[in-house]
Design brief:
heterodimer, A: disordered N terminus, B: 5 helices
Amino acid sequence: MVATREQLPAKECMDSRTITACQRGDREALRRLFETYKDRVYSIAIYSLAGDEMAAADVTQQVFLKLLTRINQFRGDSDFATWLYRLIINTCHDEYRKRRRFVPLADPFFKIPSRADSPRVRYARKELSGRVQSAIAELKPKLRWPILLKYVEGMSYEEIAVVLGCSKGTVASRLNRAHKALGKKLSHLKDQI
Amino acid sequence: MFSNHVTSLSSPYFHGELTAEEDHRVAKHLLVCPACRAEYEDVKAGVRIADQIKVTPAPDSLWAGVVSSLDGGHVSRARHWFTWPLAVTAAVLLIVGASLLLWRQNVADTRTQ
């Protein structure tokens, strides 16, 4: 079952006691941290890497290794989610730059379909999902990150601005450009949406 | 009236990120400016695309890989999942091949006796 954006934002789930426990090396707290953020990290990675599930899993693992080994560096002078999402973006960006010269091996259409729909509906959904993943991965990074933070994490423009270290107006401008680019790239699929 | 186009405000207007005053200004302007209205429709099309983004569940095996690395063990890279089945297949083929050779040797020995 795919999680929805309407569930409680991850930043509200991660309290200071859990973070302190993680910094002490409490394995249960580390597991709770992982379970809280793993789906969002994986989702951002998979959309950054055009649906390559193996690469996204690898990047997700790297993010958590960095997070768990660097958590003692978090001093509480910024929101924990802000610190985390900067880590995610930097890791995904590094992987994207390493891979952008190579043809992606993953087939974005290769997804396990839902059993509830007819074959035709499942195929149409797979195609749309794959096209959206590819279109987002093709966006320039500075347009891609606001889109993913907005639509995966449900962040406000203000929150996105804090993560990216820019103004709210810049976020608005980049989202404008990203929306127009996506609409133009996938205009032929508008009847399926 | 047309000197204050609102094209740059399409996305924040759609997402309800403007102040009440800005929101009202954009709404009024879109009623009378075809260019800005067309731009707004382009942004709306992109929003519909972006709304297809779903939070995807991460594989269950990831935590084991993270723990393994934290404990200083072998770094279990998720992308190398295929090496284990390949190793098993190679081992099975080796065993079958060795068994066939032994059987042929036994048959040859029996005939010469």
